[in-house]
Amino acid sequence: MEDTRIIDLYWARSQEAIGQTKIKYGRLIYSICVRILRIAEDALECENDTYLRAWDSMPPQRPDHLSAYLGRIARNLSLDRYEREHAQKRGGTQIPLILEELEECIPSSSDSGLPVELRDLLNRFLEGQTERARMLFVRRYWFGDSVKEIADRYELGESLVKMTLLRSRNSLRAFLEQEGVTI
Question: What pLDDT tens digit does each residue of the chain (183 aa) get?
Fold first, then answer.
């Protein structure tokens, strides 16, 4: 089913909207959640919470890209849950490492002003990157893939993945400084 039709179902308050969303985007939502949480049961709960959040937000929201909208909801719910459950300990997932890697180039949320502005800057930055650098960056910092998983997925050496990510972070830091965003 087309995304616009699914969104219309949400706006019509039809229960079919959730079923169609699950059919079309269930695997994507679950994969985002499980990469962050690493526990299948928690990922399933976040997946279901994503459907509920989408139901509650449409209307008034009418997303342009349903997959990105649902992905953002799933990612935020998963990160919130992860933070709650790991408030006093560091687990074995990639999240603490990923956040540590990014803290050198992205300001904390209290320093960045509006999140929308930072999102727009990140999108502009990524548009200026090579396709490979963009794919590796998104797999690492959006989906939470490990360096090994990225290397295996794209048939690259782990050292090449690490170097590309390092260069991307350095470029991002310079780009943000040029745009007047300081860490």
Answer: 999 999 999 999 999 999 999 999 999 999 999 988 888 999 999 999 999 999 999 999 899 999 999 999 999 999 888 888 766 454 455 666 777 777 777 765 544 444 567 778 888 999 999 999 999 999 888 888 889 999 999 999 999 999 999 999 999 988 988 888 766
Cα 12 from Cα 32, distance rounded (Å): 28
Instruction: Provide φ and ψ at 155, rounded to 5°.
Output: 55, 50
Pairwise CA distance, residues 17 & 8, whole Å: 8
Give the integer Cα–Cα distance in Å for 6 and 160. 40
Q: How many whole angstroms separate alpha carbon 50 and alpha carbon 69? A: 10
* CA angle (96 as vertex; 91, 102 as ends), nearest 5: 175
pTM for the whole structure: 0.61
Per the CB < 8 A criterion, the answer to whether 70 and 54 are in contact is yes
